[in-house]
Amino acid sequence: AQKITQTQPGMFVQEKEAVTLDCTYDTSDQSYGLFWYKQPSSGEMIFLIYQGSYDEQNATEGRYSLNFQKARKSANLVISASQLGDSAMYFCAMREGPSGAGSYQLTFGKGTKLSVIP
Amino acid sequence: DAGVTQSPTHLIKTRGQQVTLRCSPKSGHDTVSWYQQALGQGPQFIFQYYEEEERQRGNFPDRFSGHQFPNYSSELNVNALLLGDSALYLCASSPPVGRGDTQYFGPGTRLTVL
Fold first, then answer.
1. Are the CB atoms for A6 and B51 separated by under 8 Å?
2. What does the angle CA A85 – CA B3 – CA B45 come to, to the nearest 5 degrees?
3. Which of B11, B43, B33 shows the shortest CA–CA distance to B109?
4. Cross-chain residue pair B55–A35, CB shorter than 8 Å
5. Hey, how many other C-beta atoms are within 10 angstroms of the C-beta on B24?
6. Chain A environment of B101 (Cβ under 8 Å)
7. Cα–Cα distance for residue pair B89/A25, rounded to 1 Å
8. CA A86, CA A71: separation in Å to the nearest integer?
9. A42-96 tens-digit pLDDT
10. Is A113 on the interface with B (CB under 8 A)?
11. CA B82 from chain center: how many Å?
12. What would the pLDDT profile of B68-91 be if each residue is shown by its tens digit?
């Protein structure tokens, strides 16, 4: 089974509108971390936001917020007020086990290509 | 504050050759991970180095090997290159234990095997 599933290969959003990128995950661990990265066409993976499995509040970083629904095993990324520079691939990733003591690898989904329309 | 750097940016090799890719971690980071990203896919974990030792390895053959130096920089070596090794190779660094485990990525090395 896929550990990280991103069901939207591509998304379009109008500039200044909000958009939600979906991510579901599969793990039997109680402690884990969820990450979102942005990858422009240049190739560099840019860290956006992190959510720990025991964090009670949804993570927010500027225009990015993570809609964490633990029971549904979903960690959707919400981008508010989209900008042209937000056009890129977006990857959801998971670290299984507790920070610093569990698995050290990140497992990535296949990504969602977001296109912002002027 | 310099981020993660990688060299070279691009590389073209032929089948059977060997290649070495280099990575310098972000200042203050002591752990380096390597990922392979094939076209249209998410990155796949190759291995992670900490204290100059391979701490964890993904599902990659022994043709893939690495090294970490005392200054925390790292190399990825791939022997007997195959056409399927063509990919973007990403290096990521993370801070010491207790300071979070977010991995910060470099710009990548794009390897083409002909």
1. no
2. 85
3. B11
4. no
5. 21
6. 33, 95, 99-100, 104
7. 24
8. 29
9. 999 999 999 999 998 999 999 999 999 999 999 999 999 999 999 999 999 999 8
10. no
11. 17
12. 999 999 999 999 999 999 999 999
Pairwise CA distance, residues B22 & A21, whole Å: 33
Q: Is B21 in the A-facing interface, judged by CB distances under 8 Å?
A: no
Query: Hey, is the C-beta of A99 within 8 angstroms of any chain B C-beta?
Result: yes
- Cross-strand partners of A50: A35
Nearest to A91 by CA among A33, A2, A5: A5
CB of B92 within 8 Å of a chain A CB? The answer is yes
Interface contact flag, A100 B103, Cβ < 8 Å? no
Tell me the C-alpha to C-alpha distance, in Å, between residue A91 and each of A38, A47, B47, B62.
6, 10, 19, 28
Burial A43-67 (b: 16+ CB within 10 A, else e): bbbebbbbbbbeeeeebeeeebbbb
d(C-alpha B114, C-alpha B112), whole Å: 6
